[in-house]
Amino acid sequence: MAASETPGYAAADHTDAIITRLRRAEGQVRGIAAMVTDGRYCIDVLQQISAAQAALDKVALMLVDDHSRHCVMGADAGDAQEQRRAELMAAITRLVERR
């Protein structure tokens, strides 16, 4: 990493998409709180919790993908590096979706 680079989240190309997904998940969590306040059926609340968790998992995968692309592999990754990155993301995706 060059001295001028700052470690951490630096994927400006995905920032808007990530913020949009986070705001959607935030709305889902507020909706869950309202469901609990309203005394909604527990299974319905659990289903919405599952949906919110899935939304956050998608954000996490986007962040891991950006991290692997920009921080691990470097911005100018070659074909072999890109293939390894894609394999890494496929494996992580399988693990997250297996729950």
Descriptors:
99 residues; single chain; mainly alpha; Methane Monooxygenase Hydroxylase, Chain G, domain 1
Characterise the protein shown here:
- With 99 residues, this protein is mostly helical.
- It has one domain: Metal-sensitive repressor, helix protomer (Methane Monooxygenase Hydroxylase, Chain G, domain 1, Up-down Bundle).
- The protein has three helices and no strands.
- The chain has helices at 12-37, 42-72, 79-97.
- Helix 1 packs antiparallel against helix 2 (42-72).
- The chain is elongated.
- It starts with 11 loop residues before the first helix and ends with a helix.
- The mean pLDDT is 81.
Number of domains: 1
- Strand percentage, roughly? under 5%
What is Rg?
Answer: 17 Å
Q: What string, H for helix and E for strand, traces the elements in order?
A: HHH
As residue ranges, the low-confidence spans are none
The chain-level mean pLDDT equals: 81
State the helicity in percent bands. Answer: over 70%
Please identify, by name, the CATH architecture: Up-down Bundle
* Termini Cα gap: 35 Å
**Helix vs. strand class:** mainly alpha
CATH superfamily caption = Metal-sensitive repressor, helix protomer
Major beta-sheet overview: none
Q: What's the count of strands?
A: 0
Shape: elongated
Name of the CATH first level: Mainly Alpha
Oligomerization state: single chain
CATH topology: Methane Monooxygenase Hydroxylase, Chain G, domain 1
Tally of DSSP helical segments: 3
